[in-house]
């Protein structure tokens, strides 16, 4: 079945806008080809002149957006990490980190330079939402024990800066990291649960009403693009369903896609989000039994995001399409309970304790998923050409009306990645402790090493479990075992007790 006219139209505009915005990036040739393919598909069945008004509108909006955002803004403080030794670290919107002096007046939402000097105090809705989120998270810290509090903050407030590195590693390598990023899944669960309650109370248009009730809470998330995209999509779906209009979810996804490209920056998060949702919607289109469509919907998010994940990160857990629905059974009540804790400002002890218990179960389930499926973790450093070609083949199948076969290209890519893994074996490496124990190394580059000896200035216990295919050697303990000082001088031998104390104390953060 060929895609409907308005669906092809909206995606032509999406690819056109994205190609124009990414004209200087390596993605431009592939986005340009996607634009040409959708244009040819439309003109083969409909009149090409109908594309002129939409094209003119998109190009005009892009020009206006470029004009108004021509001047570079100073980076804003999106978060401030507080350490036990009273050090504070500001995280900027450009992902740079700035240590703040004691007594600094810097707040989230402020614009600062690389030395921590305030250039302009934060103002407006964005700064206000960031400050509200920051204060609410500090209330969360006092009400719910760590590390559950960090998971609640990630799932409801969009704060992932406080998540411990080992926990992030377990989520990433078990293929469950998407649970920690506010997305359509989170917004859908909250609106769905609230809509069900309103339906029991016989409130008219429960889904639309639930969507509107959630709207005032959106600023508390810090208004990340992922949350705004998810909310807008769910609102459009709710209005379309309850107004008894014939809606096409794929078309509504295209509308949100186009708005995202025109008004914001289309980043990695957006690409993963739209690919996952688009895969689900396409998997239930066309012919096939309910069982077949259910199976396709379960594996579609994994397969449709696979080209992007392999190109950017290189690491994927092949069993994530199994663990996701299993852990989802625990995640759903946990998210609802976390939402209730948030709306009650963490003042109701019963709700907080329930959230804590469910959060502990969620974390334990994630760790269990990793240990049960760590054999399925593969690392394949995929070239951009192959990843983009896979996505283009999916587009060709959709435009040709062969939606039933749309999962075949990414499935073949999956087979290719398994057979052509990027592996380094039997090597000896010497790494700084900060790199070896970092989330990025553990979840990406580190997974390429097999049966290697990795020496480091320090090794965290969780790092040994996450890099389980290698032998990690803590150089502090190496010196301890031989009874030598750092330079290996026998004349400088120290007592066992002194060396043990030194080995347990990491260098002070500064």
Task: List the uncertain runs.
Answer: 484-510
| Assembly state (oligomeric) | single chain
Mean pLDDT: 86
Distance between the termini: 61 Å
- Count of spatially separate domains: 4
How many β strands by DSSP? 12
Helical residues, percent: 55-70%
Which sheet architecture does the biggest sheet show?
Answer: 3 strands, antiparallel
What keywords describe this structure?
510 residues; mainly alpha; 4 domains; three-stranded parallel sheet
Describe the structure.
Pfam families: Competence. InterPro entries: ComEC_N, Competence_DNA_uptake. The chain has 510 residues and is mainly alpha-helical. The chain has four domains: 5-68, no CATH class; 77-121, no CATH class; 171-373, no CATH class; 424-504, no CATH class. It contains 21 helices and twelve strands. The strands form five sheets. A three-stranded antiparallel sheet has the order 1-2-3, with no helix packed on it. Strands 9-11-12 form a three-stranded parallel sheet. α19 links the parallel β11 (453-456) and β12 (471-474). α9 (225-242) runs antiparallel to α10 (249-263). The N and C termini lie far apart (61 Å).
Task: Give a brief description.
The protein is mainly α. It has 21 helices and twelve strands.
Topology:
Blueprint: H1 5-21, H2 28-45, H3 51-68, E1 77-82, E2 88-92, E3 97-100, E4 111-112, E5 118-120, H4 124-143, H5 148-157, H6 165-173, H7 184-200, H8 206-214, H9 225-242, H10 249-263, H11 268-283, H12 290-312, E6 315-317, H13 320-343, H14 349-373, E7 377-379, H15 384-399, H16 408-419, E8 424-425, E9 428-431, H17 433-436, H18 439-443, E10 449-450, E11 453-456, H19 461-466, E12 471-474, H20 475-482, H21 496-504
Parallel strand pairs: 8-10, 9-11, 11-12
Antiparallel strand pairs: 1-2, 2-3, 4-5, 6-7
């Amino acid at each position: 079945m060929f895609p409907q006219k308005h669906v092809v139209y909206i995606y032509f505009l999406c690819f056109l806008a994205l190609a124009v915005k990414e004209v200087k990036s390596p993605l431009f040739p592939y986005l340009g080809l996607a634009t040409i393919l959708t244009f040819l598909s439309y003109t083969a069945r409909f009149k090409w002149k109908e594309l002129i008004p939409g094209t003119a509108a998109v190009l005009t909006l892009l020009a206006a957006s470029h004009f108004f955002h021509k001047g570079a803004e100073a980076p804003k403080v999106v978060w401030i990490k507080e350490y036990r030794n009273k050090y504070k670290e500001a995280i900027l919107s450009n992902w740079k980190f700035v240590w703040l002096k004691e007594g600094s007046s810097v707040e989230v939402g402020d614009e600062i330079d690389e030395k921590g000097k305030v250039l302009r105090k934060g103002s407006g809705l964005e700064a206000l939402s960031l400050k509200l989120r920051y204060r609410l998270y500090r209330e969360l810290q006092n009400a719910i024990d760590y590390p559950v509090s960090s998971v609640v903050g990630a799932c409801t407030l969009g704060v992932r800066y406080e998540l411990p590195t080992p926990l992030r590693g377990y989520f990433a390598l078990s293929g469950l990291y998407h649970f920690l990023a506010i997305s359509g899944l989170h917004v859908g669960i909250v609106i769905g649960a609230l809509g069900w309650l309103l339906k029991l109370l016989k409130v008219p248009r429960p889904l639309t009403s639930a969507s509107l009730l959630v709207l005032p809470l959106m600023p508390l998330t810090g208004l990340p693009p992922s949350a705004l995209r998810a909310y807008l999509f769910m609102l459009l779906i709710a209005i379309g369903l309850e107004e008894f209009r014939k809606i096409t979810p794929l078309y509504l996804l295209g509308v949100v896609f186009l708005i995202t490209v025109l008004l914001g920056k289309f980043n990695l998060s957006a690409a993963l989000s739209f690919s996952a949702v688009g895969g689900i919607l396409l998997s239930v289109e066309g012919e096939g039994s309910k069982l077949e469509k259910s199976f396709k919907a379960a594996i579609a998010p994994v397969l449709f995001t696979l080209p992007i994940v392999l190109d950017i990160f290189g690491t994927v857990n092949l069993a994530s399409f199994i663990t996701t629905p299993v852990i989802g059974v625990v995640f759903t009540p946990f998210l609802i309970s976390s939402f209730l804790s948030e709306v009650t400002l963490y003042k109701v002890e019963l709700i907080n304790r329930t959230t804590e218990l469910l959060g502990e179960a969620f974390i334990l389930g994630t760790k269990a998923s990793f240990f049960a499926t760590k054999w399925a973790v593969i690392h394949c450093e995929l070239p951009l050409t192959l990843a983009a070609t896979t996505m283009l083949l999916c587009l060709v199948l959709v435009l040709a009306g062969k939606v039933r076969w749309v999962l075949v290209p990414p499935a073949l890519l999956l087979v290719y990645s398994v057979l052509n893994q990027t592996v380094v074996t039997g090597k000896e490496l010497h790494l700084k402790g900060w790199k070896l124990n970092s989330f990025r190394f553990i979840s990406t580059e580190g997974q390429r090493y097999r049966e290697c000896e990795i020496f480091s200035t320090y090794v965290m216990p969780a790092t040994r479990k996450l890099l389980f295919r290698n032998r990690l050697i803590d150089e502090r303990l190496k010196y301890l075992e031989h009874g030598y000082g750092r330079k290996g001088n026998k004349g400088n031998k120290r007592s066992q007790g002194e060396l043990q104390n030194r080995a347990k104390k990491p260098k002070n953060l500064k």
